[in-house]
Amino acid sequence: MAILIKSPRAERWIDAVRHHRPDEELRIWPQVGDAADIEFAVVWQPEPGDLARYPNLRAVFSMGAGVDHILADPHLPAGLPIVRLVDSTMTRGMVEYVLHWVLHHHRDFGRYAAAQPGDWTAHPQIPAPQRRVGVMGLGELGGAAARTLARLGFDTAGWSRTERQIEGITCFHGEPGRAHFLARTEILVCLLPLTPATENILDSALFAALPPGAALIHCGRGPHLVEADLLAALDTGHLAAATLDVFPTEPLPPAHPFWTHPRVTVTPHMASLGVARSAAAGFSEAIDLLRAGKLPGNLVDRAAGY
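and the corresponding structure tokens:
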């Protein structure tokens, strides 16, 4: 039996998987060979219908934190286990990104950058315990970011679809809790999974529910954002700034207004990049569990979408 790798950086993943499983047969898509030989697939953006043609496929692994690129396949075999990536290196990278930009907006560093050269004005500062930060999505990445912000003294809240309890963080959940969460959030971090319920969630109604002068840090999934609504909220001044790492269309087109908007900072989907070697270690552990008849802890709930 064999493990199939499907990625634009397939050679890097082959080396990483081989490091942890040197005795496995590895194949790079589309050079699949006999489809009946494929036991596991490690993929990023698989072709629609492709996973359905491997009769002995036991599980599919996502190379990224999101799994919407797999769940979008209308031909995905029912009951096929999907394992999402949980990688300490990726988590640490996301925490670094969120922390940097929360501090950027909290300390108004963009204002100082725009004032150079020649303006020596120092503006008032708000202590971290008086700055209300909110994280939408309290999974592996969002939970880690929220905990770090709370440890640094920020008044940190989180919102999730279902109820969660995290020490040091005020947790809200569901539609009733979202309004309260947004009303108290001055810096909003979006780290939600992409599901039908969260697509277009960053819209005019959500922005209007934030306090005037709030800032957005969006490092979830591109289709969360209604771009025209964000531009309108920035142009009216209701939102002070936005840092965007993910977009509905990537790469972001050169003529897109985000590139030149004075209140928008664009980063090229680099908030947290998976490291193949450390990610493959988690995949290897999951393969051992599956072959032993057990389920890995990071199995995707298809009904929930993550």
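(Above: one complete record from the training split.) DSSP finds nine helices and twelve strands in the chain.
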